[in-house]
Amino acid sequence: MNFRGSTGFGRKFTEIAYGKWGQTMQDDITDGVNWLIGKGIADPAKIAIYGGSYGGYATLQGIVKDPDLYACAIDYVGVSNLFSFLQTIPPYWKPMLDMMYEMVGNPEKDAQMLRENSPALNAERIKTPLLVVQGANDPRVNINESNQMVEALRSRGVHVDYMVKDNEDTASTTRKTASTSTARWRSSSPNTSRASNRRAGSCRRATADKPESQPATSILPYRFLK
User: Are 76 and 177 within 8 A, CB to CB?
Assistant: First the structure.
């Protein structure tokens, strides 16, 4: 899905996404899903949303903005709080901080916009079964981003699976776990409706079947946090 901001489509296509995290950038993804449904390509009861890094953010924001659209969601090292994300960027990004403010938003000038589009700060809207995966040593998307998201949901009694790899960062987490994490999808919140449970079951079946040409890597080195 080449939502606005995607590279390779010219400068204008990139720049129209500045300051639009979780807004029109997210709407492009939603429009794409609805197009697939409208064309009969996708079963509306079996749609999962998955992504890593910014894609993880888009996954979380997707189930905040459109909680009835997705059967389940998988967030890999995703940003959950735009304020804390901007405060914990790695040192080698510091020279680009002004550009980051232009692309994402300025915590002082754009506080309301950042708050409205931070999934962890709007977790009360989430009801989609969710798996969160995080590399403990990620320098770009700090583990606190995933911690916040999980804590925001669990504080409301919402079940969420949380998988952490102690010695991985963003790149290695995404590379090594991309074909494995859905294998241990567990039940959603005890308060989830029967309809949601059926959707989760459909998602589990849809994601568990993998071609023999794409063998799953062992997930034993990972730990689930309760």
Answer: yes
CB atoms within 10 A of CB 180: 18
Q: How far is it, in rounded angstroms, from Cα 5 to Cα 152?
A: 28
CA–chain centroid gap for 143, Å, is 14
**Stated pTM of the model:** 0.77
8-state DSSP, 178: T
- Cα–Cα distance for residue pair 14/202, rounded to 1 Å: 35
Query: How much is the CA Rg of the chain, to the nearest whole Å?
Result: 17
Q: Which one is predicted more confidently, 25 or 201? A: 25
Residue 74's H or E segment, with its range, is strand 72-76
Across the chain, mean pLDDT equals: 81
The token duo for 127 is 């009801």
Helix and strand counts by DSSP (H, E) for the chain: 9, 5
Distance CA 104, CA 22 (A): 10
Nearest to 76 by CA among 3, 156, 158, 182: 182
- The 10s digit of each residue's pLDDT in 77-120 is 999 999 999 998 888 888 899 999 999 999 999 999 999 999 99
